[in-house]
Design brief:
nine-stranded mixed β-sheet; 357 residues; homotetramer; 2 domains; alpha/beta; 10 helices; Rossmann fold
Chain lengths: 357, 357, 357, 357
């Protein structure tokens, strides 16, 4: 019997691995959730773990991963180490029978990611990817609007995520920032809509040894286009997405707390191509809508809190999380294709016909 | 003796051809300039020309281009007809010995543009391209800052020009809007810096028969990257450019009259690659500057007014305008390459080694 | 028979008096309106009138007001001279049987304003005040929303109109800018709602001899409050009003063309005081609404164009304009009371029980 | 020997009283400071204190204030209870020999505040007021700029602090929000500059039994004016101050993290009144500066962290904190005068000649 069959009303014992940039956020949110009982914070440098916990905490700091995994009271493990070690740490946790939450990206390659997904499925364990943005009230609402048809069919998505960011030692700006946009795209696309090819351009003008500015273009199977601009060098911080639908267009400005989402009943309509002959097509009827804009009220709720609850739901229910390992794999496949395109000067890379899973 | 040798202090007789979208702006600015005397507004539909002039004007409306070109008092002609007729109208004007100002783009193709440039040079006449944005106080200042070295070397340029725009009958969004961005790029790049290849992606998701959303990526001979996003379908209007330099980064927000330019002394520095061994390169020293931001005071001056004065200066001095025919040709070469890339699914198109001129 | 009984379909002959700051806008709008035929532009300095008309106009420039008023073809006169001469010029025009449009404020004092209103009424002529902002699409919509009850009852109005402005030689910032806000307030208040007292504070810290910063507080007969901040010294330009209603609250940002009006279904409700005993009152039920925000689509239309049409409608129909002389008088009464308060250190000045008219 | 003479390098034992809205912020910041050792969180409802501490804390929760004050290891007490109980709690702490930090406002009245200041001075204990905003990097910089003369002499200060806020049960919007603005004003004014009179207007249009919208006007001894707008009913959140100086004008937008401060070298100059005769005065020379705007780089640092360090500095050094009890008293005096003005319909209330202390 694996540890996932404990009493439903008992908090789930959890350990966080990695006390770097992201770990403290997980520590805080597991502590604030009645669903979990945080038992360990583990880091290669135990002093770093201690510093994160502070002087007033009853949580144990350690640098001994094996001891954490050997703790029967730990049923779940959250991995917030650098991507290069995700395979090793997450695999060890799965093999120890723990449910696993992994910080994005799922792993350093599709191949590694596949191994994790296979292991989790074999063992009937939850493998969840911490695609945090998917759990913001804004993205949850965008998903509803696209799935529910209120925006109509997706025409284009344009995402900008730029800031003066830390130039990473091991990964380029695309692997650092684009997982956010790609996981959001994966999360909000209605069933049956998916990217079929990717092209990427980038530049390393400061001589960092890796792209610090990158542009990704994704062509979808519907003819729609998605475009992502990520940039570590921008002195201004912008986090905006425009999601053009056939009925309405949505603008998401994540840095405007008073008006994160704006839904415009404004746009261009063209008489359906099917109804028109060639001659007409040239003289097509373009009409413009210029209706109101609605900014829906959103509850303010920390995304990580919702994410942590989804992890609990997945563990207790034995069902995949909304952003499960397979979602993580799809994002990895896009990143790998984009990396190939970047190396080839922007050539269009088709995504495998077969599912990446 | 051609008509350009008239007395220096006498207003230059001018005619505007085309009373559509742009013509009225030229009419107004020629009227307000002491350098010019507007004599004719010519349009295929004379009533349209009359409507533009209104009930109180002494300027003559006509639909007879030949009569305009036969008027000895007309020394200069401004062409504001659709791009498809630029060659015909501008060539006729040049052959009649008139100096010519052409609305962007210079012509419908590089080949046509070359013919106009050759004709003007043969006849010693001014051929100027109305790259209006180049004459805004903001772009003139950006040019100064880049040429003068205050921003350092260009690292990247990211330009966004999106709005709910008129879906044009004959051209796609790239030919409609990108000439603005490409002409600005051409105008501000310091001597010796130039694009070497172009890739373009676009989508026509509304079935308009031409791209309504497009992304252009330009690689420069310095390794820098320029990227342009043009879009007819956006319910929000954005006209922003970020120009990253090795010393400072400039943000231009053309819709913020109180703060059009912001110059950030903020950025990332990397120890020069030349000074570093491979080992060091991995451990490179990245440092961050986080200095002040300065928003320089700009005079508010209509760009067309400055443009019209530059046309007068060029005519009177017999010297090329800042945005002369050759500048127009360079923009056309970029547009043609981008169009080819778009048709080929985004492949990288090298710009001819030889100058497009 | 006065000149207002001419054929309904014939353009109304009009003259503009004053070629200073505002006159040119009137000239342009009368020229663009099919309802009017502009015949004269009159200024004490005829060269100034000529400069405004430019080199291409068929309109006559003059410095001879008597000649203008003697012209039978002139049925209407628009007065755009300094406020100090409004009485003299407008009275002369009325006595010559002309309909009169006066730039705000109607006159330099309530007494002068009353004389004009009386004269116009005696002669059955239109006397209209050019309260331009009332004719913006935004203010027209606000009026509809308040009159129609969609905002509920007015709770507060807060208006900010600040900018680096010209320090006027003859009037303080209150007389320069507050007429805009006061005329808007007068225009949008539902029938029966009106100010009952005014207090004003100001400062002349730069030694200009008159207030350059001023704050007006108006108490309404409903218990609602209105507050106006006008300022000539602000380096940032702000033109915002918040209009709190019992049902919804509206924010008007006149400098945000993409979202001038925002209507928030967000606010605080308190159980009606009438239903509560004293004890309950202390434990009153406060509830918060946090619904959506709607930014209604507005047509973009120049206010002066609508204003000019309203002038024509009033002349042709023989009915008062929306912003007639009496509206101008009410604004003058508020300004005079505010001036008294300012002189008395901010004391609350009751407005005359009797209508100022 | 009172407890303030302990070893300088030992953390200062501290207790927080009050686990409501503000207490948790103090708990977090005392825990993060190496200067302090948090020993107790005390609340009338011990479960509330426990909830704030969470399941992982070693800090003791209690509802027994006497026990806390009897703890020798507690040398300092932070009071975050409702204003009505500040006198009682803070006085007990002072009498037990503890240094005291009090949440704003210092007490419920000037009289109560005076008693606390006197007690602390008699005992040589630190009494500090938690005027949090004074410790933001923005306000610290503003103080530097005003004290250092870079803005010139203060001409006007306009502060807006509006939001959809909790309608408080015991205090009006003025007592809830204006202490922020008044404490900032007190903090940044250069030596010798001080308010001399106050007027206040307000409205309780929703029937809450207390003002929900209020406007305060302060006249300073230099002729400058300060104005504060506080509002619980606004659906939009605004926290902006404009600080006009004779040399430069500063705009503080606290909700714009990328550009909190903007310093404009833009303004109006008038030739000094002293140099001019009466005649000249009418024809005075007004000149306009339109220089650059500079947005200084600010470190991002939580204000409470700096505040907590200032408390430690004051305790260890035996010197008054920047926002000591006397600063709290001055704010109380302004609030009391404003309350009187509000009750009297906005009449101008002179502040006592003698210092309120």
């Amino acid at each position: 019997m694996n540890s996932s069959h404990a009493a439903a009303d008992e908090p789930i014992g959890v350990a966080v691995i990695g006390a770097g940039y992201w770990g403290p956020n997980l520590v805080r949110n597991f502590q604030n959730s009645a669903e979990f009982r945080l038992r360990w914070l583990c880091d290669l440098e135990v002093r770093r773990a201690q510093r994160v916990l502070g002087d007033y905490s009853t949580v144990q700091a350690t640098d001994d991963l094996a001891a954490v995994l050997a703790d029967d009271k730990v049923r779940a493990v959250a991995v917030a180490t650098p991507a290069g070690s995700h395979l090793e740490v997450a695999m060890a946790a799965l093999r120890a029978g723990k449910h696993v939450l992994v910080e994005k990206p799922l792993a350093a390659s599709v191949e590694q990611g596949r191994a994790l997904v296979a292991e989790a499925e074999r063992r009937g364990l939850s493998l969840m990817c911490d695609h945090t943005y998917c759990y913001t009230p804004a993205v949850l609402r965008i998903r509803e609007l696209l799935h529910g048809g209120e925006l109509g069919e997706l025409q284009y998505l344009d995402s900008v995520r730029i800031n003066l960011g830390l130039v990473q030692r091991d990964i380029d700006v695309m692997w650092d920032l684009a997982p956010h946009d790609l996981s959001i795209l994966d999360f909000i696309l209605p069933p049956g809509v998916a990217p079929v090819s990717v092209a990427a351009h980038g530049a390393d003008r400061i001589g960092a040894g890796r792209a610090c500015v990158a542009y990704l273009t994704l062509h979808l199977n519907t003819g729609a286009i998605a475009h992502i601009h990520v940039n570590w060098l921008s002195p201004v911080k912008i986090r905006t997405a425009i999601i053009g639908g056939s009925k309405r267009t949505l603008v998401w400005d994540d840095l405007n707390p008073g008006q994160r989402l704006s839904i415009f009943d404004r746009g261009v309509d063209v008489a359906s191509a099917d109804e028109l002959g060639d001659e007409q097509r040239r003289d097509m009827l373009v009409s413009y809508r210029s209706g109101d804009m609605v900014a829906p009220a959103l509850t303010e709720r920390e995304a990580l809190r919702t994410m942590v609850e989804e992890f609990a739901r997945s563990i207790r229910g034995g069902t995949p999380a909304l952003t499960d390992g397979r979602a993580g794999l799809r994002v990895l496949a896009l990143l790998e294709a984009a990396t190939r395109s970047l190396a080839e000067g922007g050539s269009l890379i088709a995504l495998d016909e077969e599912s990446p899973e």
